[in-house]
Amino acid sequence: MESVSRRTAMIGAIGVAGAAVVGCSTEPPTQSSAPPATNPGAGEATSATPSATPTQDTTPRWPLTGKVLDDPEDAKRIAVIVKVPDNKGEHPQIGLDAADIVYVQLDGYPAAVGQSGTRLVPIYHSKYADSVNPVRSVRPVDVPMLAPITGIIGNTGGFGWVLKYFAKFTDYLEINKNYMATKGTGSYSILSNRVRVLNGQTYYDRAVAAHPAKLAKQTKKFSDGPQQNYFPWAATDEEVSTEVSGKEASFISVPWKRADTYNMSYTYSAKKKRYLRSMPWGKHVLADGTQVSCDNVLVIKAKQVFGRISAKGKINANYTGHDEPIHDIVNSKGTFYYAHQGKYVTGTWTKGDVQELFQFTLADGTPLKMAPGQTFIELPDKAAKITVKA
After folding, report:
1. Per residue in 9-32, pLDDT tens?
2. What pLDDT was estimated at residue 313?
3. Among 55, 213, 262, 331, which lies 20 to 30 A Cα-Cα from 129?
4. Distance of alpha carbon 347 from alpha carbon 367, whole angstroms
5. What predicted TM-score, i.e. pTM, was given to this entire model?
6. Which domains does the chain have, with CATH numbers?
7. Listed residue (341, 342, 252) closest to 301, CA to CA
8. Nearest to 363 by CA among 351, 349, 379, 377
9. How far apart are CA 29 and CA 287, in angstroms?
10. 92 upstream amide cis, omega within 30 of 0
């Protein structure tokens, strides 16, 4: 059994990890007046012929998957985000296959020193998983990574300065409905088969499960759902960037540790028309035996910093207190890879302030157009060597 640090141990009734957030509201999000189910990001869609007249897509779509909405009112539901640990001892997981988007981020240490594992951030909106397990604490990158998505985050707390940072963005994200704050609501439960005992001490760090449908009822905010598309969805299959100019990509490997090791990989299945995900030790398999898969793979390379974020949003890498892994994505840019149905394209991503969307531009200067579906997003270090095989 692996060793337990103060970062990983949730002792007794998980009271240590159940810290509450002190709210500090900001100005309302700029996208709040936008219609919830329209597709503003897909207007000026890129056609197969660059010189062709762009088309306007007014099709109602789910904002986090781009899939067509039968009834726009259905999108007026709260997005539920859950923090899920991803190290080997915390597998198998439950509920990832129901998420619209799954982010892969650093766990607790910088990849540069070769110690880090990964943490997952599944986002549920078009449908809710019955249960999501395990559940752990928030990270500072969650704020700029998720915004301008509005939603509630299932979590077990966070370090003090991180919670104060989150408190500045309560118009976007609700994090104070953690395990301890929602007892008796059915928002969380303890899976008895995942409780562990080490040296006579009981640990619940792998046993907490979140229940998104119940958790969504714990906030009165965000009742109109996400207010804009998170990605630039293509209006038609022919306009998807990988169909227009993609190269073959049957296999993609994304390293997370020093010297380009500890790789997450995606293998394209022509039969399923999806990418099958693997961990460094083998297939990424859920508790029910299902291998994790997705329609889209998006790799966003960004500098990884180990420190804290100041009151003004500046990264302080010389902080001597409790450091946290930070992905430098605010007012920044870098390289991205996007893969769909066995093909990929590359280009440059940019992001402005915390609450602004990522923007993706292909190498030829045209905007990225993504296919509707479930997306996995990897956030490796800026220097990571991404391997793509035909």
Report:
1. 333 433 333 333 222 333 333 333
2. 75
3. 262
4. 9
5. 0.86
6. 30-39+58-389 (3.50.90.10)
7. 252
8. 349
9. 38
10. yes
